[in-house]
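Run log // design_07
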């Protein structure tokens, strides 16, 4: 692994084969069917309620993304791009985002970086939030605004922890946290201890190997 650097959100560079580097969520989605079960349940519930599913999903995704943007701005990141969101979306997302910002500040977490896209020679990913705890340890955090938390999130955080470690912060304990802020429900922070984070990283390594093997087969580089 080499050439880790800070880059703009989701603007990942090309790998050695001249193609865009795969993202953490892309790899997980392809080889785990990540979120498939949850999405089936989501659409089933919306259908039973007679709600327009596509519009409902798009609206939920937009307010989640808007919450992320407002949280980032509130913690010292880039200001919210007012042209990207409707006033109604900002008004709806602001209270949810503010409680996240307030909780992080109450915990005394020092923000190291937020909404930062990282890459290495094999894959890339965007870390929602990285903080330093009061004891000097580091937490890789992921903000979720959906009603449920997928167990595979531990693998996602493990991949981000791998990218973080390649920054050069060796010897500093790293753990994870899921900041769960569903609209209209209580805020909670779910700790992901270092052993679980390491297990998630190992699982992601296998997924990445599988992804690269599949890509090589598609190019006729193996099994030909």
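design_07 sequence
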């Amino acid at each position: 692994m080499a050439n880790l650097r800070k880059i703009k959100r989701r603007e990942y560079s090309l790998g050695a084969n001249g193609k865009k580097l795969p993202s953490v969520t892309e790899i997980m989605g392809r080889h785990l069917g990540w979120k498939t079960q949850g999405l089936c349940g989501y659409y089933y519930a919306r259908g039973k309620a007679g709600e327009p599913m596509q519009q409902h999903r798009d609206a939920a995704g937009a307010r989640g993304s808007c919450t992320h943007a407002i949280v980032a701005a509130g913690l010292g990141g880039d200001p919210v791009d007012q042209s990207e969101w409707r006033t109604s979306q900002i008004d709806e997302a602001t209270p949810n985002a503010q409680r996240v910002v307030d909780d992080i500040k109450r915990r005394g977490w020092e923000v190291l970086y937020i909404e930062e896209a990282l890459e290495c020679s094999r894959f890339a990913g965007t870390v929602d939030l990285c903080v330093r705890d009061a004891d000097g340890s580091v937490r890789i955090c992921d903000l979720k605004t959906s009603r449920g938390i997928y167990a595979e999130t531990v693998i996602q955080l493990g991949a981000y922890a791998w990218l973080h470690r390649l920054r050069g912060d060796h010897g500093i304990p790293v753990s994870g946290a899921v900041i769960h802020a569903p609209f209209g429900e209580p805020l909670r922070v779910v700790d992901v201890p270092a052993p679980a984070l390491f297990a998630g990283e190992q699982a992601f390594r296998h997924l990445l190997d599988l992804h690269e093997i599949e890509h090589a087969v598609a190019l006729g580089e193996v099994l030909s």
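The domain at 5-218 is CATH 3.40.1350.10 (Trna Endonuclease; Chain: A, domain 1).
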